[in-house]
UniProtKB/TrEMBL annotation, chains A, B:
Belongs to the acyl-CoA dehydrogenase family. It comes from Sulfitobacter aestuariivivens. It comes from the Bacteria. This is 3-methylmercaptopropionyl-CoA dehydrogenase. The keyword Metal-binding does not apply.
Amino acid sequence: MPYRAAVDDFNFLFDHVVGLDALRKTERFAEASDDVTRAILTEAGKMCDEVLAPVQRNGDLHPAVLENGIVRTSPGFAEGFAAIAEGGWIGMSADPEYGGMGLPMMLTSAVNEMMSGACLSLQLAPLMSQGQIEALEHHASDAIKALYLPKLISGEWTGTMNLTEPQAGSDVGALSSKAEDNGDGTYRVSGQKIYISWGDNDFAQNVCHLVLARLPGAPEGTKGISLFLVPKFLPNEDGSIGARNGVSVVSLEHKMGLHGSPTAMMQYDNATGWLVGPEQGGMAAMFTMMNNARLGVGGQGIGAAEGAYQMALDYALERKQGRAEGTGAIIEHADVRRMLLTMKADTFAARAIALSCAQAIDMNTATGDTEWKARAAFLTPIAKAFGTDTGIAVAEMGVQVHGGMGFIEETGAAQFSRDVRVTAIYEGTNGIQAMDLVARKMMDGGEAAGRLLDEVETHAEAARDAFPNMADAVWQASESLREATEWLVAQGDLNDRFAGAVPYLRAFARVLGGHMHLKAAMADKGGAREKLARFYIQRLLPEHVGLLAHAQAGDDALYAITVDELVA
Amino acid sequence: MPYRAAVDDFNFLFDHVVGLDALRKTERFAEASDDVTRAILTEAGKMCDEVLAPVQRNGDLHPAVLENGIVRTSPGFAEGFAAIAEGGWIGMSADPEYGGMGLPMMLTSAVNEMMSGACLSLQLAPLMSQGQIEALEHHASDAIKALYLPKLISGEWTGTMNLTEPQAGSDVGALSSKAEDNGDGTYRVSGQKIYISWGDNDFAQNVCHLVLARLPGAPEGTKGISLFLVPKFLPNEDGSIGARNGVSVVSLEHKMGLHGSPTAMMQYDNATGWLVGPEQGGMAAMFTMMNNARLGVGGQGIGAAEGAYQMALDYALERKQGRAEGTGAIIEHADVRRMLLTMKADTFAARAIALSCAQAIDMNTATGDTEWKARAAFLTPIAKAFGTDTGIAVAEMGVQVHGGMGFIEETGAAQFSRDVRVTAIYEGTNGIQAMDLVARKMMDGGEAAGRLLDEVETHAEAARDAFPNMADAVWQASESLREATEWLVAQGDLNDRFAGAVPYLRAFARVLGGHMHLKAAMADKGGAREKLARFYIQRLLPEHVGLLAHAQAGDDALYAITVDELVA
């Protein structure tokens, strides 16, 4: 069976778990009616199933290549991108003034995730454009907006983000690319950038790079960084394509997966660029783009999880093996069920968390309420790290469900596993996400976390009559998490927080997942969703106990062992 | 820094954690003195570092290929195999009567693991031969032994095992290969086998296949299966090579990793074979080979973990990034330390468990004591599944430590991850291992498990004075595991055990790991091993709580959801 975008699951989530009701009451999103959202999901799902999923294998088998300085993309990718562009899916949440649909991020997240499950490597292209669109909307001059946004939203042009340099990965502040003022409103940008996703392609008329660089005399570190828009071709005022700019692709990386997405080393030689945001205000602008992209990358993980789950489920339904009851297929084996239900339950949890993050973004956009802003900020690293960890774990389990066939490339299960692996690394490694969660996102003394847990516990109380055991398990887990949160907040030495950041983030996601499943169970009493919730709460939620022990261990044990002892 | 076989770790384990003393007191292994074992580890380690590790990348970059029916192996593999053969490492534990060294499996396991860390795909070749040697030693006629064993032990010939057919993977009993009696002591074997590791090569004079097939009129299922030895070339009585036999390589698989190991589809067309063991006694003989191979595959996982850990450690020591204290390298970051210490601590735990399994095999060999036999049987699935899961998780973390570089193939970190992935699948998937543990290995009512836990708790009591917290944590975890074991044993419906088999196996390994680390701490008070034990017991051991909740959930929740609901 081919890929089927999880349209029903999103409809259920919007109806019962992470509702759109509050959003629809705002002026900003009043038009996102039930009819509209259902139609959009159906339409986007159709494209995913019919156009994108069929080219997924092409990306792996026929990777993007660099020929004479030109990037040739995988067969069918140009058509796939055209379908995404024509559907309006790039600019779903973009400003209607420039051709966008002005829809909530909740819907964009849903569609992005569905596209990721269909063809992860291709979906990364519009995701990069979306980040650029949002950065330009917030930080660019009106002239730049008027010139670039319509082209990016229509998909005639694509966007990239250029942060990393060989000596500056997670530590963006160490970058050495330079920019100098030409005195005519333009700058000349020089330097080398690595790991540039979709650094070039052969289907867009222009490729627009957002490049972090340092102006003369700028201070060291992130403070001294400015952001520049550097197009491959210099546009004329009417938006037509002008001269070739001083930017080129040096090479493409040979990667473990995601072969359909060209990962470029880019060279800028006195390339003409335009400042976006104020001088030395590059990081703020970049963070706009990164926050968007982090949620998007979380969605990539979840999409890959959905695709891998469906493939494994199909195999388990068809593969006859052993003394299985019922259908005689391996799905009747307890351990295969354990794997499939784990995959399904975690995918649902990660999806609900990501939508919850998107909801907070939308509510903040619509109302300006800072509590929603704080929630979005708090949930972003969780959505990114848990979404991608889930993608990796689910794809890995998908390989296992296939047995020996899983290790054979022709099956396609291994591709999901190889492709999704990078999502835990790019847009800030999952370790960076966890550090962000326990440091920056707890500068409020744990308030945003506490409000989330209040909500979890209030709902658990309301669910006690219907599901006493499940409600109690979620409530208890939330209390344990609250204690751990208070412990973290009380640590003056940030390193004591960092030492347990990754297990803490995962425990938070586990508890939120329990909350989401409990909500689903309440909306489907006696149905499949209640049963899935039981599986999750009974079997997966208890993982938080070990994680929280790990999270509150402090950094002593990490540094007790000396480097010499490690090397010995 | 290149790969350094973990010779010191093995010496420490043999001295303090999984001692060789009892073995040395037996007549069988009296010669395995301290001097001998140290010399062997040093010598084997040297070969791993200098000969095998340098060809590891070749396997990935220049996979084995099938050309005109002939398998061409990766550059340097022939020389690597020759070094293994010349060192005597294939027949380390084989009968000295046929050229073996008669050494304990503990040493063979150590050397196998060291070779796996150096070059996993090549090491699989001698591992296959070792399994065949053991099967022939136990089940073949004297004539076959005299003819084949010297050649296999010397490495002039290699061995394979042929179980799987397209419709018969984990369910071996479904196989359809046929054998008919020629009436002259030989049989003609026909059928197709898939996933045959090292099904052919260009460095051995002969390749000997152990093939499961069914004689005419044999009952269905595993009961009706016989085992045949089918060489590529029919040997003359003097051991020289005779006529080509009716066996050929149809194709090689295109795999996610382990490209250096040719995984063949084999075709048998009235190939001449010799019966090994009695007619319809094939499964018993095959189990000899499989038990050996399962421990060996566990060692492959641990070796890959060691290799991946070393590569990640080197990177973390060299890579400058962020505001790191001390050396300025990323190893100073808490989360990188968390990853490296997790990798190191789990590798040690898995290694100690595998050696403990080998010890039980050796003690049973030397004394015939059935308690040791039961222990070996109980520990084999744990050593296999936890060793390979650790290999996969550690290699995965190794990729993460490398950040963006981890996803780039040139780095080599991704290769570890891709190569080791199959170890959780072949020689019985890890799900099969777990089912074996909770069913066959608990037919004794949990006695073997209970004796292990008695030992864990007795040692914890002895460690209480020195390390009250650590000892108590291990003791408590053991008690929880004992309760879970009793719960499993009490389940009349095996499916209730299977439903939690994988988490139970992992919890058992977690607790045994705590035991091994506590022993290490006792032998190195105040030293690096005590510190590593603290890390493990404080941060990783608590994982057992969630696992044991999962293990005791029964199968109700797994089957509450119908297949229709899953597909919907």
